[in-house]
């Protein structure tokens, strides 16, 4: 199976570092070998290093240096968010966000349920 996730204009990716961790964005411009310009619904247009993104299997058809409204429209028409949320990585990010939003009591309940699941059964 050949490699097909290239750094290219229109490639959808997720950010793997910083405030926008896990948010989807699209590569709008390739600056050089190590940096790209990205933009997305929750990510402002910015230049970031390639090592700070995870490339997905999805692409959208946009031109080089496309304006923000065209990028967002292309992502919505391709239903990128729904497709990404159906992937294994997307599901793990949703679970991770839910775990971060838990209250103390919810964490306690989860811990007690895990402890109860591992107890030996009485005959």
Helix and strand arrangement:
Blueprint: E1 11-15, E2 24-30, E3 35-39, E4 46-49, E5 53-59, H1 68-77, H2 80-85, H3 88-100, H4 104-118
Antiparallel strand pairs: 1-2, 1-5, 2-3, 3-4
Low-confidence stretches: none
The number of helical elements comes to 4
Give the number of domains. 2
Helix content, binned percent? 25-40%
CATH topology of the largest domain: SH3 type barrels
Mean pLDDT: 92
Strand order of the largest sheet: 4-3-2-1-5
Rg to the nearest angstrom? 19 Å
Counting DSSP E segments of at least 2 residues, the number of strands comes to 5
Looking at the overall shape, the CATH architecture of the largest domain is Roll
- Look at the helices and sheets and give the structural class: alpha+beta
**CATH class division of the largest domain:** Mainly Beta
Element order: H for helix, E for strand: EEEEEHHHH
Instruction: Give the termini separation.
Output: 51 Å
């Amino acid at each position: 199976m050949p490699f097909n996730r290239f750094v290219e204009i229109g490639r959808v990716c997720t950010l793997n570092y910083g405030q926008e961790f896990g948010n989807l964005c699209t590569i709008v411009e390739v600056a050089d070998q190590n940096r790209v310009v990205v933009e997305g619904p929750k990510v402002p247009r910015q230049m970031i290093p390639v090592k700070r993104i995870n490339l997905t299997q999805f692409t959208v058809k946009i031109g080089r240096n496309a304006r923000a409204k065209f990028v967002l429209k292309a992502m919505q028409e391709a239903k990128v968010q729904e497709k990404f949320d159906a992937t294994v990585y997307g599901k793990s990010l949703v679970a991770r966000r839910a775990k971060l939003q838990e209250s103390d009591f919810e964490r306690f309940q989860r811990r007690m349920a895990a402890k109860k699941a591992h107890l030996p059964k009485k005959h």
